[in-house]
């Protein structure tokens, strides 16, 4: 069921509406649901509701529909007179995102803009991780040693001496990377001007730690290189995202254009809408069932449920059962995407789940049920 709003167009006489506190509308699969869609084949000339064939915004769902359209166009485009949006134009838009096997191996065209963006995203993440490791490791270690040396000189309370040495907000080493970088630069200039404060501190293992202007200068250069790498990788990531988003929009426009062109070629009751992965506007049939469901651990107490797109589905209903807690499967939510993360699960608990695809014509049979031990 879904929440009902006064302005969402629901009729007072809709047999699936429930007005009250709260107000809601029954959906396929809910107890008491009344299927108001015409039976398949009825009223072939009836003017239907084309909004049920809205172009999906989710990229995975969009790609799945585009591939169905490509197959439909390949077999029917000449028969029905599809001229502007054909299998070749659909295929070109799909390959921009997914990659063209005929393009040069290793090229961006061969990889596709989605994989290129993912690679850029991973490189930026790696650069940020490397910066953090350097900052929390070597940089923090040298600055902590510098602070220990200064404590012997300026005491344990903040004063002008501490400020001159770069500790303007107290006598602790800052946690922020940029503030550590600034303190490292001040450490170099301060020790260069006060060479008598330089020191060599014994370490539990290895050589002594040099708390010197030269050490601060060398580490500062390494630290700056790590910052530069992050900035460069993040700029590349932004560029890759722009290309991917442009290709996704182009595919969205191609799929939307195909639907629009079909609307001028096919009657609202024509069964050939389904050859393109679309619903028959005048009398939609229920979608095909979800074929595959997986569950994967994605963090502490978290499991991600993922499923393949079902042809003609406009949304999905998720059901879950925690063994030993739930007596039966419980409805979790209605979802337009192809994945959902279960949170706050108990490690070691056994969880089962399945998905039901649905559209204005009804709901499909349930997907296969997946069962998994949380965290395993």
How is this structure best described in words?
This protein is of the alpha+beta class and 376 residues long. It has helices at 59-80, 87-98, 108-111, 113-154, 160-164, 177-193, 213-263; strands spanning 2-3, 17-18, 24-25, 199-201, 209-211, 293-299, 302-307, 315-322, 330-335, 339-342, 350-359, 362-363, 370-373. The strands form four sheets. Strands 8, 9, 11, 12 and 13 form a five-stranded antiparallel β-sheet that branches. A hairpin with a 5-residue loop joins strand 2 (17-18) and strand 3. Helix 6 (177-193) packs antiparallel against helix 7 (213-263). The longest helix has 51 residues, at 213-263. The radius of gyration is 31 Å and the shape is elongated. It starts with a strand and ends with a strand. Mean pLDDT is 91; it is low at 37-48.
Helices and strands, with pairings:
Elements: E1 2-3, E2 17-18, E3 24-25, H1 59-80, H2 87-98, H3 108-111, H4 113-154, H5 160-164, H6 177-193, E4 199-201, E5 209-211, H7 213-263, E6 293-299, E7 302-307, E8 315-322, E9 330-335, E10 339-342, E11 350-359, E12 362-363, E13 370-373
Antiparallel strand pairs: 1-3, 2-3, 4-5, 6-7, 7-10, 8-9, 8-11, 11-12, 11-13
Provide keyphrases for this structure.
single chain, 376 residues, alpha+beta, 5-stranded antiparallel sheet, 41% helix
Give a nutshell description of this structure.
By secondary structure, the chain is of the alpha+beta class. The protein has helices at residues 59-80, 87-98, 108-111, 113-154, 160-164, 177-193, 213-263; strands at residues 2-3, 17-18, 24-25, 199-201, 209-211, 293-299, 302-307, 315-322, 330-335, 339-342, 350-359, 362-363, 370-373. Helices cover 41% and strands 16% of the residues.
């Amino acid at each position: 069921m879904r929440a009902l709003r006064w302005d969402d167009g629901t009729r007072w006489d809709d047999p699936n509406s429930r007005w009250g506190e709260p107000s809601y509308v029954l959906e396929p699969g809910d107890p008491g649901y009344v299927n108001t869609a015409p039976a398949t084949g009825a009223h072939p000339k009836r003017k239907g509701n084309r909004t049920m064939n809205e172009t999906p915004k989710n990229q995975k769902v969009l790609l799945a529909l585009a591939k169905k359209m490509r197959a439909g166009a390949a077999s029917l485009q000449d028969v029905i007179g599809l001229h502007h949006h054909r299998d070749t134009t659909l295929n070109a838009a799909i390959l921009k995102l997914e990659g063209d096997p005929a393009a040069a191996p290793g090229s961006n065209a061969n990889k596709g803009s989605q994989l290129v963006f993912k690679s850029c995203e991973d490189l930026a993440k790696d650069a940020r991780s490397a910066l953090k490791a350097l900052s929390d490791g070597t940089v923090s270690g040298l600055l902590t040693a510098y602070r220990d040396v200064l404590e012997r000189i300026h005491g344990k309370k903040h004063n002008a001496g501490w400020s001159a040495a770069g500790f303007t907000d107290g006598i602790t080493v800052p946690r922020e990377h940029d503030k550590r970088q600034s303190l490292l630069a001040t450490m170099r200039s301060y020790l260069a001007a006060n060479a008598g404060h330089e020191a060599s501190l014994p370490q539990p293992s290895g050589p002594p730690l040099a708390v010197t202007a030269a050490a601060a200068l060398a580490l500062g250069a390494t630290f700056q290189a790590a910052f530069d790498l992050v900035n460069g990788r993040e700029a590349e990531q932004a560029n890759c995202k722009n290309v991917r988003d442009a290709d996704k929009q182009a595919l969205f426009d191609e799929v939307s254009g195909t639907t629009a062109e079909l609307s001028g070629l096919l009657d609202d009751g024509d069964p050939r809408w389904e050859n393109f992965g679309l619903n028959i506007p005048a009398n939609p049939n229920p979608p095909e069932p979800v074929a595959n469901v997986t569950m994967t651990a994605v963090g502490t107490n978290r499991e991600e449920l993922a499923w393949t797109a079902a042809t003609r589905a406009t949304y999905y209903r998720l059901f879950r059962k925690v063994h030993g807690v739930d007596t039966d499967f419980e409805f979790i939510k209605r979802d337009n995407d192809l994945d959902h993360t279960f949170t706050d699960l108990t490690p070691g608990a056994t969880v089962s789940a399945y998905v039901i695809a649905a559209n204005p014509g009804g709901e499909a049979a349930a997907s296969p049920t997946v069962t998994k031990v949380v965290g395993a």
